[in-house]
Fold:
Amino acid sequence: MSRDRASRHLPVVVTILIALALMMVPLPRGVDVFRPDWVAVLMIFWAFSLPRSYSVGVAFLLGIVIDVAQGTLLGQHALALVAVVYLTVKFHLLMRVFPLLQLMATVFALLALYQFLLFWVNGISNVSAPSVTYWGPVVSGTLLWPILFSFLNGLRYRVQSRV
Structure:
């Protein structure tokens, strides 16, 4: 029984580890501002797909890991991820019936909320950054959403049918 359970959680753990690695890969300065928030996009997907298993607690832990890895204010990404994942879990049944374009608009709003919370905490702590560093990841994450959604949804169904 535990082997089946572990194989069900393996795709989630692997994708989150890949997202954390992609978050730390150095990119050129012009491209770096459009780097998607990989962890936020993946947590939206997994909270949307498996809301009972991957929700606020996992989001908080991943937020702390991101804060430590990036050297930002401790709890900043945790707060933003928890808020986004909470809203995703709260409305996941409603979001399941959305067509892809409406789901993309919802993901845009969730990623904008994520970046707004980061902007707000940076404003309180007197850290300034250009606005493209906040809007670039929102746009790129939204445009990347249909590809990630199709790939991860297919992966999730293959793993579930195999177990």
